[in-house]
Amino acid sequence: MNPRLLRGLLPPLSLAALLIAIFWLQPRTMSYFGLNLLLNLAVPIALAAIAQMFILCVNELDLSIGGFVSLVACITATWLHDTPLLGIAALAGLIAAYAALGALIHLRNLPSIVVTLGMSFVWLGLAVLVLPTPGGKAPEYIRALMTLKPPFIPFPIIAAVVIAIVVHIVLMRSAYGAVLRGAGGNPRSLERAGWSILKIKMTMFALAGFFGVLSGMALVGLTTSADANIALRYTLLSIAGVILGGGEFVGGRVSPIGAVIGAVTLALAGSFLSFLRLNPDWQIGAQGAILIIVLALRVLISRSEVRS
Amino acid sequence: MSGTSPIVVLDGVEKSFGAVRALTGVTLELRRGECLGLVGHNGAGKSTLMNVLSGNLSPDAGRITVDGADITGRLTPQNAVAHGVRCVYQELSLCPNLTVAENARISHPSIAGVGWRRAARELISGMLDQIFPGHGISTDHLVGDLSIARRQMVEIARAFAVTRAEAKVVILDEPTSSLDGVAAKKLLAYVRRYVDAGGTCVLISHLLGEIFDTSDRIAVMRDGGVVALDRAKAFDRNSLVAAMGSVAERAPGQARGGAAIRETASIVVQARPRIPETLSLAAHKGEVVGLAGLSGQGQTELLVQVFDHAAGAQVSGEVALVAGDRQTDGIFPLWSIAENISIGSLRRFLKGPFLDHVAARAFAEEWRKRIGIRTPDVGQPILSLSGGNQQKALFARALGSPAEIIVMDDPMRGVDVGTKQEVYGMIRDEAAKGRTFLWYTTEMDELTNCDHVYVFREGGIVADLPRAEMTEERVLHASFRADA
Fold first, then answer.
1. Which residues of chain B lie closer than 8 angstroms to A191, CB-CB?
2. Which of A131, A229, B221, B281 is in the most buried spot, having the most CB atoms within 10 Å?
3. Measured between CB atoms, which of A178, A192, A194 is closest to B102?
4. Are B77 and A193 within 8 A, CB to CB?
């Protein structure tokens, strides 16, 4: 079998394997209601993974996305609920701040790991200021959207498919998307062709901020209230989701569909482990083990590709 | 048939990098319907000139006119493309993570909107068909999956492709270096068709045959200036090579009789490049052996082979390396000068499992004095030194190590003249004490410090010249293909 095809099939196959294992362990999940419950927390994780993917696509890394999603969740549960205009302005300001971070990282040639690690504390601090104790209330329309019960297909599945397809069209199919990805592959070539790397980096960071905002809003829609620490683990989940979905840390090789599949896989891994009655303390380690297994498979496939 | 009206006029263009004057007042005209061949030895300024023309470097002085419009100081890559100036770079500039069609879109911003993918496919495949019929490249292939030759074809086709932006001037830097003979012929034939239809082409190549067959006029560059410019027919191979060499007699080097060493001293290094047809290299104890030729012809690979004691190289003794690319292969940028020097011989400072930092520092201090590194304190960070002094620290690292064989990978890149002279002296002294040097250099002057010179071309050794027989002319002749 063609190794490239095999590598492309690895993310969906891992997801399918996990789903089958869950259905086997707990046949009741194989229903509309079961799938809804199983997958609804995957939606904000998928959005965060998409945000991370935009950053990885231009050879940077965002260690602040978890703190950022938490802050968005806090703003959504307070300002956006109480004073919608202030809420919208604050969220738009956050997206602009992300674009400015992209500009800073590019212009000063700073390592994005350091900048975003620092920013993660800023976001977290702001989140605590906005919402010192867990609470707040999700705006009705977000709550209504996230608990939608469409006929036949559970909402989280529709949401995941829509997110994957929309981002796929923007990044993988549009003419400007080719330029954005090219900046990850060979920035010098783009500069020589007259494109501004600064603009591209700012665009990608702004897109990441936008999807970070969507992730925080979706999360509050599910949990109905927020907390400053609500999404801290999203940083690692989002990176793992992109990589699990076939993306690479450098070289502009990413896949939106893969990132969504990777995020869903990670979310399901948590449920799978609880069905196994594994102590929750072990869950993060077990998620790591799943990641290592899939990446090891990918390395094996790549090696056979080199040999052939 | 040469055209007459100029499309690009360079008038006294100058460019310096620190103390190095890369362009010293270049005045040159590119004419419509003409192919200009541009030749010169390493560091003659060809690439700098091309980067100025394509807007990647802005000149320090001089005027540039394109199509009658003075665009001095406003020449950005974007602007150059808008004026129809295109480049094919020697180190390819495609995005490996994109498909062939997507790469075409990168340099043709006017391909946009719904159906852009089809437009880009048609553009690039049409151009590939015209230049390289039977190329066998699918426009949906990822560029990273293509062979080097096919990538080069895509890059060339992309440069000649015409959308809303015209391709008025196309600059080709060593375009055939990774193409096979058949594809190269197709390209050169296309260049002639393009030029005959009124286009302008600059062809940079070290294959003189290509230059003669394809160019209308030939410009020869040396030391950052154009030293000869005439119709192609006015040159022959000898006069072209002669023009590339320097007129002024260089100061004779201090190399001792290499022949004497060869007769008495034992062989310590014997190596053969990994290609079928090549001479092999031998270095005797106490000898300074030069590796010459155009840059990137397999010299570094051979040095690495010797350094690794790899198959194909018989090396008796330890080897130390002086890196040429200081930033990537040489210095530890966050360490002090002392640490950078002593890392080459750490074993001698071991006290049980620990390092004796006082002894290491004293050792670095001793080498600072011996080699004249200009710093008050070896505890300072290495980056506090100038480039030349950083290089001295790298020499100290290699010479301070117990290695008997020192390989040097074009170590004098970007080093000032004073430092160079000091280092040459040091190399001679160390050679006199019995150390052996393998010295890859792209500078003709430095070869005069060698006892024996091997000239590299296309990965192999093509000439074996003792010091007495080594002249600049012979090295140049060997560097360029005889059948070319």
1. 77
2. B221
3. A178
4. yes
CA distance A199 to chain B (A): 14
- pLDDT tens-place string over residues A31-73: 999 999 899 899 999 999 999 999 999 999 999 999 999 999 9
For B310-365, how does the pLDDT look when each residue is reduced to its tens digit (9 = 90+)? 887 888 888 999 987 777 788 898 899 999 999 988 888 988 889 898 999 999 99
Residue A140 lies inside a defined structural domain of this protein: yes
Q: What is the pLDDT of residue B19?
A: 67
Q: Which pairing describes strands B460-466 and B281-284: parallel, antiparallel, or unpaired?
A: unpaired
Q: Is A23 an 8 Å CB contact of chain B?
A: no
Whether residue A169 is contained in a domain is answered as yes
Would you call A275 an interface residue with chain B, using a CB distance cutoff of 8 Å? no
Nearest alpha carbon to residue B413 among B385, B431, B381, B390: B390
Strand order in B6-17's β-sheet? B20-31, B6-17, B61-66, B69-70
Q: Which residues of chain B does A194 touch, with a Cβ-Cβ cutoff of 8 Å? A: 76-82, 109
A175, A188, A194 member nearest B112 (Cβ):
A175
Q: Which of residues 230-259 of A touch B (CB under 8 A)?
A: 251-253
Q: Which residues of A touch B117 (CB under 8 A)?
A: 173, 175
Write down the pTM of the prediction.
0.80
- Say how far apart CA B444 and CA B42 lie, in whole Å: 9
Q: Cβ-count burial of B369 within 10 angstroms (0-12 exposed, 13-18 middle, 19+ buried)? A: exposed
- At A10-39, the pLDDT tens digits run 899 999 999 999 999 989 888 999 999 899
Indicate the SS3 state at residue B97.
Answer: coil
Q: By the 8 A CB rule, do B412 and B441 touch?
A: yes
Q: How many CB pairs under 8 A join A and B?
A: 68
Assess if residue A308 is contained within a domain.
no
Strand pairing report for B200-204 and B34-40: parallel
- Which chain B residue has its CA at the smallest distance from A195's CA? B78
Does position A129 have pLDDT exceeding 90, yes or no?
Answer: yes
The ipTM (two decimal places) reads 0.89
Q: For A192, which of B77, B109, B117 is closest by C-beta distance?
A: B77
Q: What is the CATH number of the domain that holds A172?
A: 1.10.3470
What kind and span of H or E run contains B182?
helix B181-196
**Nearest-Cα residue of chain A relative to residue B118:** A175
Q: Which two tokens stand for residue B313?
A: 């190289």
10-residue stretch averages of pLDDT, chain B, 484 residues long: 74 82 89 92 82 88 88 83 87 88 92 92 95 92 88 94 88 86 91 94 88 93 89 88 64 52 81 86 91 86 90 87 81 90 88 89 90 85 82 90 90 74 87 92 84 90 88 85 62
Interchain pair A182, B113: CB under 8 A: no
Report how many helices (DSSP H) and strands (DSSP E) chain B contains, helices first. Answer: 16, 21
List the structure tokens of B307.
């350094």
User: Please, which residues 171-190 of chain A have a Cβ atom closer than 8 Å to chain B?
Assistant: 173, 175-176, 178-179, 181-182, 184-186, 188-190
Residues B212-259: pLDDT tens digits? Answer: 999 999 999 988 899 999 999 999 888 888 888 764 444 444 445 555
**Number of separate domains in chain A:** 1
B7 and B68 in contact (C-beta within 8 Å)? no
Mean pLDDT of A262-275: 88
Which residue range(s) make up the domain with A239?
3-303
Q: Do A188 and B78 touch (CB under 8 A)?
A: no
Tell me, what's the pLDDT at B483?
59
Residue A148 lies in a domain: yes
The shortest C-alpha distance from B46 to chain A (Å) reads 18
